[in-house]
Fold:
Amino acid sequence: MNNYLPSPADFLPLTTRDSADRLERPSMSYWQDVWQRLQHNRRALTSLFIVVALLLFTTIGPLVWQADPAQQDLEQISQAPNLGLRALVVDDFPEVRELAAGPVSPAQRLPPEKLLAPANLRVLGTAHSEGVHLAWDQVPGASGYQLYRHELNPSGPDDLGLPLITLRGTSLSYRDRLGLQTIEYYYSVAALSQRRQSPNYRTLAVTVGQAIRLSEASYRGLLASADSSYIGSHVQLEIHPLGTDYLGRDMLARLMWGARTSLFIGIVAPLIYVAFGLMYGGLAGYSGGHTDNFLMRFADFVIALPFLLFMILFKIAFGLGPGESGIGPMLIALVLLSWPATARLVRGQVLQIREEPYIAAARLMGASAPYLVLRHMLPNLMSVLLVSLTFAIPTAIFTEAFLSFIGMGVVPPTPSWGSMCNDGIRTMLSHPHELVFPALFISVTVLAFNLLGDGLRDAMDARMRGDS
Amino acid sequence: MLAYIGRRLLSGAITIWFIATATFAGMHMVPGDPLLNDKAVTPEIRANLEKVYGLDKPVLQQYVIYLGNMARGDFGISFTQQNRSVNDIIAEHFPVSATLGLLALLFAALGGITWGAITALYRDQMPDFVIMFFVIVFVSVPSFVFAAIGQLAILQVNDWLGFSLLPVAGWGTLAHMLVPAMVLGLGTMAYLTRLMRSSMLEVADADYIRTARAKGLTPGRIFFRHQLRNAILPVVTVLGPSIASITTGGFVVELVFAIPGLGRYFIQAVQQLDYTVIMGTTVFYGAFLVLMVIAVDILYGFIDPRIQVSRAVS
Structure:
């Protein structure tokens, strides 16, 4: 049955082995384990990447995209995201040919109801953002003309839009330069007589093209010189990948610099107050007795302060010198009001750790108090601290955004995501990108930190250790 | 129980004193002059004004007078509207904020409990994922964005219907309150949903649920009678602090929807450095929040008999 043939090797004496077979995994430190389990959590890992990307966006971003966040590009106000517009170069002082008719004697005037609509309403030259030159034919019997501009097609004589000018006399042309944007306008002209307006009007739809004055173009370095031979040619305007805000400032640059404000407050303030809370709570928990009672009672009082009211109060209390951005006072106020939560958490943990057998063992072996704190307590507190830090960051970012939104945060022109939202909400309907981008950045950042905090908490939960 | 309530009220009173002191200290650190305005003020008028507001006395004496007035519930006269007392201002604007906050809290609590129960019931299934996705969105998007979206939504619905179903801004009727209250309650609702979900899942493993199942009770009866009622308890505890976040979070909603609440008035007072209004409003809000937290804690004692016993012993 068993046809095993013994070999000579079977008859050699056995060698002794030092130990039994090792049946264990390579030993892994706590942080290695946490990192490994965090890597398995796809949501947390994605969030970590987003956080890193945001930090790169705000640190390296301004080096790559060197647009000045305070530079106002008045040619491109509230411009939607674009990859560069072309603009017609026009003369600074264009020759304006004023058209006029011969004088109308009072006897020739007709009542306004009998006046016809002006004929041949037309644009002289090209219609561009530096000026729209309109002309029309004379209406017999009229003593003047009334010009209107509308962004929608007028529905009747009472809906002609913005009154541009009342021309009395013989003028038959008008150059409109009033805050022109590169959209389609509906210009209407109606004749006047006896100080009243004729119900008959003529409307012309005009699409306004982008233009830039010669001196402006050369000043901004778009042209080599202010040579008048450039007039009529096209230049490439500054690129605004995420558009511009209501003052023509580059959104991408403002988002990058705003991230500095928002993330600085969002990360530095929690770092400071978590560190302070650690010391405070650690002291209370470690000392115990009356000290603990007194310290924690004080922390309870600070927690009871209405948070946002005191944020505003402290922010103004810490004052604001000329030329300051308001970041400092906000940071101090945030730290002053937020530390007790961490202090409470740490105290609870310290009270628990104090009773652990390993602390008693270390004490027996003659460990000094600093050694106990640094070697045994602090490492065991790290996980709780890290989780509370990740959850503190979104709260701080929200607080900054909220304060800047109600106008109590950073001072213009310092950009912050909150103040950008505040600016954007006013033009929400016509230029949604001014609200959408900063709001999106706040939301994504807060979301990323929240999910990262969730992931860290799961990864550090001692009860879940071992199962992967 | 009575001793417990007494102790809580005493510590509440000390907390309110602390809030009043912090407000006083904060206000006296604020740079600027509250009596300085556009009109030229002669030294005589200024001296009179300082006398009226008690600013001519030493700071310590001002503090004692201030505490005495606060204790009697007298918050003084406004600096910018010199014919109005701060009590009048609070009496006029606080009911608006309170109504809005109460409605928001109701919306948040009902929504949170309902959605939380549903997610726990359909754990790891489609409804759970969908609701939890929205919870994360509501937690991560700032409230002013929701306020803007809410206003836009009203506009679109009105436009689509062809008549004004809900007013876009303002205050007065229930129609004015609905959308602002919903916007205000969203964040808290998301938080309560999360809490309710974990609480429901914890209760689901409890012995009494197993017993109920073993007794042969219907799933509906187990769910509503045993699981839900026990899971609501932790949600009730956070309602106190939630009142705090909702009433102060009302600033933004009041600003966007043009609601004449105390929050909007407070911001205005801060911008105008109206000392008495700022101090009065802060102390009033602080006292209100402290009392709310105490009220919820006491209420909790009545709902859950176990808490009362253990607290009375300790």
